[in-house]
Structure formats: structure tokens, C-alpha cells
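Hi R.,

Here's the chain you asked about this morning:
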Amino acid sequence: MKLKQFKIENKQQFNKILLMFCTILIAIVNYSIAIVKENFYIAIISIMLIWIMNISWGMANIKKRYIFLGMNLMIFVFILSRPIISTFRMDEWWYFSVETVWKSLNAILISLLAILAGGIVAEKIKFKNENEEIKQYNNKIVKICMYIMLVITFIIYFGTEINKYLMFKNVDYANIYINNGIQYPIIIRVLASLYGYVTICILAMFPKKRETIIILILYVISAIPLFLLGSRNDIVLKCVVAVVYYLFRHYYYPNNEKWIGKHLKIAMVILIPVAIIGLGAYNYIRDDKKVENTSPIDMFVDFFYKQGTTYDTICQGFENEEKLKNQEYVISYTFGDFIDYILHSTISQKIFKTESLGSGNSIKMATESNSMAHHLSYIVLGDTYLQGHGRGTSFLIEVYMDFGITGVVIYSFLLGMLLILILKLCRSKYIITRYTIFTILSNIWVLPRYSAMGFLSFIITPQFWIVIIMLYGIEFITKKGTKIFRKKIGAQQGGKNESTKIC
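And the predicted structure, written out as C-alpha cells:
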């Protein structure tokens, strides 16, 4: 009986692999035909077929692959949505040079295949303790201190965001990027910047369900002031982080609590499309356009179409390849966040006598930094960039500019591996590992339209390490205090016993 079941399972596995192989082969053959015939419609359909394969593979074992699945959905939202929607509308989306469009499509296709390959390889990697029961952090004193810190940092952070809203509510949103607003005292700025890290650290302790819900609600609420100013990215990102964390607790750490029940599943199915339509409508309102005559379906589709501007950014990057590669101050776009911090941070300015790059859109950022987002925006937009507008960036174009198509393959392969391994690392018994991984998960979702190493740049920020120092500092003090207290008690009891013996 067992042998028969084994044969059936083996056959099913073989059929899945065969189907995957055939799908990829068909997609590549079609793409080759598209290149020969110079047909962009066939090309994007071939890419879509590879993307569907990635989605299908992710959904086949959603418990272990939902991070992989989520990233591929983000790739659709930010990169693929515009050309795919335009294809179904029979609109032209190849409004760059033919060479530029093919370079962009080649990079996207290769990246999707490499991400899938990386994910498949990563599943074969096993950790010793990956199946062990996850333990909850149980130092009560540390938890109380961190909760107090959470309340303080939330109040200060939310207060500064409300103040920002009051300052800019009647001003064009682009002005936020060229105006620093109020300069708060350093203690206020530090505490406000700690809020996100403190939140993630507490979540890494795996609090109880009721506590978790409150923490996640506050986390999403903190993005409302910026949302009211016209920015959707922050609130969407925080909602994604909340859902991802909730799924992790549902799949891996239920703690005898039902995290996702039938009613919540129904609510999510209803609310997600409604939220997308709402965001689409908000986009119309922000641009002073009428929504009365626009159907919900149009707003739904329009949301994805407008989010897909990163495809244009990738094309603009290839279009201006020579200019980007010949920037005087650029060392690396891929590691730009790290390089700029090392060279131009407050500490570096004092040690190496370097100058600050400032913040927001400026000539200095556009010419002397290692930021693709600022360089490309200034090249494409000119003076409009200085007014607060930008084109953004993408890991695809950054890695290509530094390392060519080989870099795209290696980076995407490693990314695919990370998207699978990250859930295994979340199960670590060490709080610092979980804190680091959850911080990555709070940043990684905008990667398709963000800098290549931006999701790891928190490692060099003082705020990240302040929370770690605070966590282990309190833990050390409590343990040391407990030992001293026990010694004193022991000494007192010993003294009493001796006096009893003498009597």
C-alpha cells in the first residue's frame, strides 16, 4: 500500500515538473519567435506565461511559498501591469526605441526565470531546527519595557506625521520632497524614527493574538497622515506587512489560537478588491478628476495601470544607459544606499570631512550621490525633478548598469532563494534573527520599484542597532539583577540557618 502511494506521489511530482518544463519551453520558443518577427505583443504574452508559472508554483504550496508568491504579485503590480493591460486594450506600450524595449523585456524575462530557479533550489536546503516548535519570548520585564517604548515612539511619530499633514495639506504633494518642514529637536527625531523598529522587534517576540492585532492596527494607522497628503505607498506597504505577518502566525505559530478563520477569509476576499478600487478612486480625487462617470472596474484596472510606471522607468534607464554609466561620482548603483551612508552620514562628515547630500530632490543628490532614482529622474525630468517629481528606480536597472545581464541573473536567483529561505529563518529561536528577518520583510515588498539593496539598508542605520542594544541591555540588566537578588536571598537564608544551629 505504501509503495503504491509512493509511486502515485512520484508520478504526480513528475507530471508537475514536466508541465513546468513544457510551459517554460513554450514561453521561450514564443519569445524567440517574437524577437524574429519583432512582435511586442507575442513577447509580453510569453513573459506573462513565465509569470503565471511563477504564480502557479507559489500557490502549489502556499504555506512555504507565500512570500515568493507575494513578490511575484508585486512584480506584476509595479513592472508588468502597464504593458499587459495595454496589450489587452490593444494599445501601444513600446513608445521607446526598439532596442530599449527589447533590452527591458529581456531583463524582465531572465529575471523571472532566475527568481523561479532560485526558489526551486532554496526548497532543497534544509535547516536543522526548521521543524522544531517556535518558542515565545518570555522575559516579562523586557517585554514591558519594549511596550512602554512602543507607546512613546508611536505618540511622537504619529504626532510628527499629523504636524506634517497640517503643514502640507493645502500644498502640492511634490513639495514634501523639496521642503524639509519643521526641524524637530534631535531627541524627537530619534524617537520618531525608532517607532517602526520597535514595532517589528515586538512582533518578533510573537505576542498574543489580541496584542498583535492592536500593534498592527496602530502600525497601519500611523500611515494615515501621509495617505491624506496623497501618498498611497506607505499605507499599502504597511497593510501588506500586517497581512504577511498575520499569515506567518497563522501558518507557523498559532499558539493554540485561531488566527485566520472563515469570516476573516471572506472579509479579506471582499475588502482587498474594495480597497484597490478605493485607492484607484483616491488617485482620481488627488488629481482633481471626476469619478462619477468612472466605473469600479475602470478604477480597479486604472490602479494597476498607474502603479506600473516602473516599466517605463526600466525603459528610461536603458534609454539613458551611457549617461548613467558615465556619472562622475557613481561607484555603484546596486550598493548606492550603503556607499552614500558610509561617505556622507553625520559620522562620516566629521571623520572624513565629507559634505552632506541633504534630503529630497537637489542638484547634489542628482549628481554626487550613488542613487539611481535621483540620477535617472534628473536626466529624464530636468528642472521638473527639482520641483519634487521623480521616476523612481528598480533593482533590474541598477544591477544591469553595474554588472550587466549576468548581474541580473545572479541577483534574481539569490532573490528567489531568499524569498523561500526567509520563512525558515523567521522560525529561528534567536530574537535577533527574527527581528532582522521581519525588518527585511517590512522593506522588501517595494523592491521592484526600489533600489537593489534598499531592503537591507536598515543594517547600517543607528535606529536598528539602538533597538538591539536596548533589547539585550535590558535583558542583561534583568538577568544580572536577578542573580544578585538570588544571592542576597541565599545569603540571608544561610545566615538564618547558622543562627538556628547556634541556638
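The CA atoms of residues 117 and 387 lie 42 Å apart.

Let me know if you need anything else.
M.
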